Fold this sequence. Notes:
Chain A contains seven helices and two strands.
Amino acid sequence: xxxxxxxxxxxxxxxxxxxxxxxxxxxxxxxxxxxxxxxxxxxxxxxxxxxxxxxxxxxxxxxxxxxxxxxxxxxxxxxxxxxxxxxxxxxxxxxxxxxxxxxxxxxxxxxxxxxxxxxxxxxxxxxxxxxxxxxxxxxxxxxxxxxxxxxxxxxxxxxxxxxx
Amino acid sequence: xxxxxxxxxxxxxxxxxxxxxxxxxxxxxxxxxxxxxxxxxxxxxxxxxxxxxxxxxxxxxxxxxxxxxxxxxxxxxxxxxxxxxxxxxxxxxxxxxxxxxxxxxxxxxxxxxxxxxxxxxxxxxxxxxxxxxxxxxxxxxxxxxxxxxxxxxxxxxxxxxxxxxxxxxxxxxxxxxxxxxxxxxxxxxxxxxxxxxxxxxxxxxxxxxxxxxxxxxxxxxxxxxxxxxxxxxxxxxxxxxxxxxxxxxxxxxxxxxxxxxxxxxxxxxxxxxxxxxxxxxxxxxxxxxxxxxxxxxxxxxxxxxxxxxxxxxxxxxxxxxxxxxxxxxxxxxxxxxxxxxxxxxxxxxxx
Lengths: 164, 351
């Protein structure tokens, strides 16, 4: 299929727009799509994401509480307002102080994940390591069941039992 | 480690060869770490930054590694020296251009570097030529494990390694490969690559990382998700699935070009080589585009009298800071274009 606009290159971007019940299809090549500002964004810019998340209506705050974005971390003084501008947090403790606000952001930028399941420092203790291995195995088990790979699932289940 | 000496030799690791080198130029793995008892960058005073610099520097320099490590004080370094480090990928551009106490620890072979007080307190990376991500991971993981017995990292039971920006949270790992995809571009199929990247949640950047444009068909591909997947899963996803797939696309496209339009492709390659062998002024953008064609010529057997290592070296030598270090003085853009052309002519001259 040729691009509707230049009628020279192959159309590789196919848009279907539905407005007022009408369906309009557009087929463009990469260049023409780019000229019309229709390039596909592979990443949502973080600052865009941040401003939308922070401007989302907050739960009604009690009368004594200051607005969310002005709440400051007692250790480093970071506020959400400042974070949304600089995109960097102020100290490790911020992850707890602003957890409610950060969690949706973490889920969005981390493909829906919110729990670490990689390396654990030795200093965190053997229990933490075991916990992490269990979390990992359970996740793989879910995945195997979803894909109907029952042999793998059985093997994983046995491994989990041994660890527990 | 003398920085002026560096400008006259290529990064040693770049000389090596490895699997899939016709498409994969280099592999890199970076880990982001922070000290538990210190604020993140936006809230650090210069004094606290100095403390961090000392703690991490001393811990790194005391590691029992096969290779000698060197510390370079980036704050004290001259602007040209900082740019030289960035051109060799030893530090990032933001690290070169920012201010305050900061530094970098570099291994003699330059395959390992650790930036201190960049966006995170510590950002370590390991490089290798071609597709050697497993090797990179093994090395950086070993260094990280040695280091964690000397310093206390900020680690959260749920979120893993804590980073200044939540986009690096969890593993703090960034796995990237530098790819050369000229045939996909020439056959109008580069979108296949972009689509694969998008579907796999990967970021595509240019030759010089974040914010840089893709010039000369060179693309850097890296993971964006750092939380909820293990380091090994991310590495294996690259080495077993994503990279082979893209390499295959590029190989098929190259074969197609050679079968269907051999003359046109030959013309492009030989013409590029001829320009590089005789031009008197070459901008870095033009050089990258022409060198890209020559690289394709070497890999497709169309050019046989130039070793690949020479092309890889040129990529370094033709950059602004390298040129000026070589010249021993600062150069205007016109002077740089002239020296660049001269260096390329000499390197590619017919014996």
